[in-house]
Amino acid sequence: MSARRPTRDARRAASAVAAGALCLVLAACGSQLDPNDVVTAGGTVGGTTVGGTGVVGDDGTVVGGDPGAGGVPGTDGSSGTSGSSGSSGSTGGTDSGGGSGSTTDPGGASSADGGGKAASCDGFKNGPGITDSTITIGNASDISGPVPGLFEAAQDATKAYVAFYNKSNPDGICGRSLVLKNYDSRTDAGADQQAYADGCENVFAMVGSMSAFDSGGASAAEGCGLPDIRSASVTKARSACKTCFGAQSTVANQFQNAVPDYVLKNFKAASQKGAMLYVNAGAAVENGKLQMQAMTQRGMKFVYEQAIEVSDFNYAPYVQQLKDRGVGYVQFIGAASQAVKLAQAMEQQSYEPDIYMLDPTAYTSEYLSGGAAVEGTTLFTNFVPFEEASSNQETQLYTSWLQQVKPGAKPTFFGAFAWSAARLFVQEATGLGGQLNRGTLVASLNKVSDWTANGLHSKQQVGPRQTGECWRFLTVKGGKFVAQGSRSYTCNGITTVR
What we know:
alpha/beta; 5-stranded parallel sheet; elongated; signal; Peripla_BP_I
């Protein structure tokens, strides 16, 4: 065996990271991950960046010339399309749906600056990350590590919004274009801390970041007053950070009532014989227990709970338990590949629950690859599916600008909320005008509630830091994700588990 080939233990550790990290922020996850559960990968922080218009290069200079010049490069730093029209490409968690869209500024609330009246620029003062011509923001997301590219989509989405803004607003914010400095948090709390320590000195704010171990940079951000508008916060330490906010607002011990209420209304008998299965890794364990308790408080009953080891490839015994106990409602928390494995095991044993429920983690083409075994699966989600992009202008903007900065890239759940974070930053900064500084930006963000990024997702309580209560449902039908019932969100409050 080659010395360079990953060991079985290393591959299992990587799978554990994927299973844990991908479900942490879904459905009020925000739970803690133990850094000891992750294999730390090597790499550099701060200097590794993606070249392109409005992006800081390895030597600290802006690659691609004037960030407002309008050229939107590819990921190799070469010139891309002019940004006058959208590129076609895959636009969704699936390989179907979505489509090309215009990359011109649509104006109004959907314009890159939010369409509101910009505040006076009188009194504007430069500060960390701000020069006479640019405002530098940073993004620290998991690019390398045991699961390469884990949250690369969040960084790509932030880059896409910077390109959108600079193309649409050549005068920038009080005469200053946006520049993006990218960091690799490497699925490691230490790397996250290093990124934010650098950010304290070299950027004005961090925007759209997404890391499985985001506790590392929490104290650094709060300590230097660095505004941090994330795709979502994962750990309790990050949620407690007073200068940190999530475009997807989550609280560790809160779960939305929309899910149990849907089950109680549509599958009454099954709701009294539920089962919760989760991967025994990272946040999945805590989330499984929390969600089961919250749904029990709402009126459901569970007769089976099971943690599944990442190394376990035989799901047949668990399915047998489901059959023996007469389970009607099955919920699973883990990676999409593992959810497929459970679905296939159920099909092989001729067991079909009344409802098989998953969170947005399963909104991937990988899950649909399960074929007939995954037909009928129900997912709960809090953002507009990419299959419905034609009816949502903000989704079109995200998907089309993503293709401009990284042709062929697939939009994702985490990318959508990173785009949302970037829009929120621009809107608040524009509204502050000459009064913009780190302190006033944090104060302004504390007042943001019911944030939807122009309908890209359901209402999020960014400032109050509460889990969003509004969710909707999808089902797998004919090998595609389609709306289950109404496309409107159900907003039934949240349950707090003490």
